[in-house]
Amino acid sequence: MAKDLTTTGPDHVAIIMDGNGRWAQKRGKPRLFGHHAGAKRVRQIVEACPDLGVKYLTIFAFSTENWRRTQTEVAGLMKLFRRYIEREARDLLANGVRVRFIGDRMKLDDRLVQLMDDLELLTSGNDRVHMTVAINYGGRDEVTRAAKRLALEIEQGRLTHRDVDAETLARFLDTHVLPDPDLVIRTSGEARISNFLLWQSAYAEYEFIDTLWPDFTAEEFAEVVGRYAARDRRFGAVKV
Ligand code: IPE
Ligand code: IPE
Ligand code: MG
Q1: How confident is the prediction for the chain on average, in pLDDT?
Q2: 3-class DSSP state of 224
Q3: Which of 34, 114, 160, 199 lies most in the core, judged by the most C-beta atoms within 10 Å?
C-alpha cells in the first residue's frame, strides 16, 4: 500500500503479546495465571490508543502453532477468550472500540466463534479505535487460505490468472479491511515474529522490548510509540 514518506505517529500498531508464561513462572504460578494477568493488560493498552493517535491496534492472542501446548493450557486459553469477550463486551461497546477477529475460525469451539461473531456485530458501528484480535492466526495459514479462495474464484470463472496481483491477493486476506501495520511491537525479549502478519508487515517498523506482556504499561506503550516518530521510513525509495 503506497504511503506518504513523512513519518508521524503510527496509525496501526500490532503487538505480539509474549511472556505471560515466564511472568507466571517467576512467581511460582501456573502459566494460565500469567495469561489472566496478560488479558487484564489489554484494556489499558486499547484505552491508550486514541490519545496516541493510534487508530488500529492488532493483538496476537493465539497462533496456529500454539495448539502444540498442553491440553490444559490450550483449554484454559480458550475459556479465557470466551470469558474475556463476555466480560468486556459492554465496555468495549461503550468506549467506541470496534472489535474484529482474524485467524481461522474452523478449528475453534462453536461457543467461542459465536461470541466472536456477536462482538463484531455489536461493535460494528464504533470507530474510535479498531481493535483486531488474532486467534488461531498464522501468517502462512492466512496467505494459504487466501490463495485457496483466489484459486476457487479462478476455477469458477469469476477471475482469471491475469487478475492475480498483490492487491487482489490481499483482498482475500483476513485483514482485507485493515491498513498495513506501521509498527509491530513484541514483548518479552524474543526477536522473532513467530508467523504474525507476514504479508502485512513487509514494511513495518519493529520494536522488540524486554518487558513481559503482563508488565507492559500504557506509559511504556506511549514511549515505544513515541520512538516510532524518529524512524525514517523509505519504502524502498530515496529521500531527496
Ligand atoms: C504469550 O505468552 C501468550 C500466548 C502465546 C498465548 P506465552 O504463553 O508465550 O509466554 P512465554 O513466552 O512462555 O513466557
Ligand atoms: C507468539 O508467541 C504467539 C502469541 C503471542 C500469541 P509464542 O510464544 O507462541 O512464540 P514462540 O513459540 O516463542 O515463537
Ligand atoms: Mg511465548
Answers
A1: 96
A2: helix
A3: 34
Give the ligand 2 atom nearest the CA of 62. 6
Distance CA 166, CA 199 (A): 10
Cell of 237: 525509495
Has 51 been annotated as catalytic?
A: no
Active-site pick, 4, 11, 18, 126: 18
User: b/e for 118-135, b at 16 or more Cβ within 10 A?
Assistant: ebeebbeebeebbbbbbb
18 has catalytic annotation: yes
146 is written with which cell numbers? 487466501
Tens-place pLDDT, residues 96-125: 999 999 999 999 999 999 999 999 999 999
Residue 14: strand pairing partners: 58, 184
Pocket probe for ligand 1: among 188, 208, 212, 213, the residue whose CB has the most ligand atoms within 8 Å is 188
pTM over 0.90: yes
- C-alpha to C-alpha distance for 67 and 175, rounded to whole angstroms: 22
Q: Structural domains in the chain?
A: 12-138+182-227 (3.40.1180.10)
Between CA 14 and CA 187 the distance in angstroms is 11
Residue 62 in contact with ligand 1 by CB distance below 6 A: yes
